[in-house]
Amino acid sequence: MNPYSIGVDLGGTNLRAAAVDASGNMLAKVASATLPQANGDTVVAEIGRAIEALRAQVSGKDLAGVGVGVPGTVEREKGILIGAVNLPQLDGYPVRDAIARRIETHVILENDANAAALGEKWIGAGRDVDDLVLLTLGTGVGGGIISGGRVLQGYAGMAAELGHITVSPNGNPCGCGNNGCLEKHASAMAVSVMARLVGLGADLSSEDVYHLAAGGDDKARLVFRTAGEALGVALANLINIFNFPLYLLSGGLLPAWEFFAPAMMAEVTRRSFIFRNAPTRIVRAQLGNEAGQFGAAYLPFRPY
Ligand SMILES: [Zn+2]
Q1: Buried b (16+ CB within 10 A) or exposed e, 48-58
Q2: CA of 168 to the centre of ligand 1 (A)
Q3: Judging by DSSP bridges, how do beta strands 141-147 and 132-137 pair with one another?
Q4: CB half-sphere exposure, 171, CA atoms < 13 A
């Protein structure tokens, strides 16, 4: 028996999938675009095609199962996805069973940020610890918590919505109904919005703002300092709650690390006595945009 698994990372714009062996070696990978208007049947057919393409490339091994990271909350018993903001057409769609019927194998769904955290735990920056938090700083802020080597799900599967931690009580309004959510103050999108508010320009990406900061622009640097402070507030709270050894950051904001990390670390140091008294690392994640597919691939190998 020489098993491998397939990990699928289903995003709002991209579908990535990889065949991975039980030691975490990638055997093959495929990627395609997720059609924004596609209905559930079409998306599942695309996932099926990706899986078949990978199976055709791997020989002499047995498929242990398929893990799928999805952009929303997973209702585990039913194998459905709810609250899929970036793929609303999949809301309530029986994703797990539809895939399993197509390819006749064991299929496990997991929230995409949880899958990314699991990937980092398995073969990435978290492989030497059993407890970590991952924050993905992209269009929004995703969160995954690994406790005792396992994904912390919460009783309804909705734990680790870390992008919606309040970092500023009367801060920017969020689609979730709250004001001052972390993702409204420290995501790539938040950086674009802040750049507009300080008069840098109307349509700048976080990367544009980064280049301005690198060129010495004070307003651009202020934007990243502000994002860093918000991250520091959130991390101080997480550290005080969990006392974990490791907090990982990934996503589109990472290139600007040098501009947001000093403010983030100052804020964490000031606000968390746990951080000041227990060795705690806040560092970059290692697997980049492949974390989700590695974590999804790990799901069929989990010992529980
Ligand atoms: Zn929110």
Answers
A1: bebbeebbeeb
A2: 11
A3: antiparallel
A4: 21
Ligand 1 centroid vs 58 CA: distance in angstroms? 42
CA 59 to ligand 1 centroid distance, Å: 45
Cα(96) to ligand 1 centroid in Å equals 27
Ligand 1 centre distance from Cα of residue 136 (Å): 15
pLDDT in tens, the chain (304 residues): 689 999 999 987 789 999 999 999 999 999 988 776 778 899 899 999 999 999 999 988 999 999 999 988 899 889 998 877 778 888 889 999 999 998 889 999 999 999 999 999 999 999 999 999 999 999 899 999 999 999 999 988 889 999 999 999 999 999 889 999 999 999 999 999 999 999 999 999 999 999 999 999 999 999 999 999 999 999 999 999 999 999 999 999 999 999 999 999 999 999 999 999 999 999 999 999 999 999 999 999 987 6
Global pTM value: 0.94
**Number of helices and strands (H, E) in the chain?**
9, 12
Reduced to 3 states, what is the DSSP secondary structure of residue 198? coil
Burial class of residue 86 in the structure, from the number of CB atoms within 10 Å of its CB (0-12 exposed, 13-18 middle, 19+ buried) = middle
Q: Which residues, at least 6 apart from 121, have a Cβ–Cβ distance to it below 8 Å? A: 127, 129, 130, 132, 146, 149, 295
Q: What secondary structure, in 3-state letters, does 225-264 show?
A: HHHHHHHHHHHHHHHHHHCCCEEEEECCCHHHHHHHHHHH
Comparing CA positions, the residue from 38, 39, 90, 41 lying closest to residue 69 is 90
Q: And the tokens for 229?
A: 């402070």
CA of 137 to the centre of ligand 1 (A): 14
